[in-house]
Amino acid sequence: MAANEKTQAKSEQISGKVKETAGRAVGNERLTAEGRAEQAKGDARQAKEKIKDTGKH
After folding, report:
1. Which candidate, 19, 48, 56, places its Cα nearest to that of 35?
2. What phi and psi values does residue 28 have, to the nearest 5 degrees?
3. Which residues contact 43 (CB under 8 A, 6 or more apart)?
4. Of 23, 41, 42, which is closest to residue 33 (Cα–Cα)?
5. Is 40 helix (H, G, I), strand (E, B) or coil?
6. Which one of 2, 12, 19, 41 has the lowest number of neighbouring Cβ atoms within 10 Å?
7. pLDDT tens-place values along the chain, 57 residues long
8. Which of 20, 18, 12 is nearest to 38 (CA)?
């Protein structure tokens, strides 16, 4: 399960970066904000998984 969560976190981070970049390129503030939010969600998920991994060792 942890590997799936880590993959999903990375996917959200990448997808968010793509949205943010696309939003900036076309001047769409909403898309840029969505991208930042998605990246933050991925960052939070990744941090949660790192904490879980630290507890296992």
Report:
1. 19
2. -95, 100
3. 9, 13
4. 23
5. helix
6. 2
7. 578 988 999 999 999 999 999 999 999 999 999 999 999 999 999 999 889 888 876
8. 12
The single residue listed with the structure tokens 């976190």 is 9
Q: At what angle do helices 29-56 and 2-26 cross, to 10 degrees?
A: 160
Q: Report the Cα 20 to chain-centroid distance in Å.
A: 11
Q: Which residues of 13-48 are buried (b: 16+ CB within 10 A; e: fewer)?
A: bebbeebbeebeeeeeeebbebbeebbebbeebbee
> Rounded to an integer, what distance in angstroms lies between the CA atom of residue 32 and that of residue 47?
23
What single DSSP character describes residue 5? H
Q: Which amino acid is at 50?
A: K
Token match 């793509």: residue?
A: 18
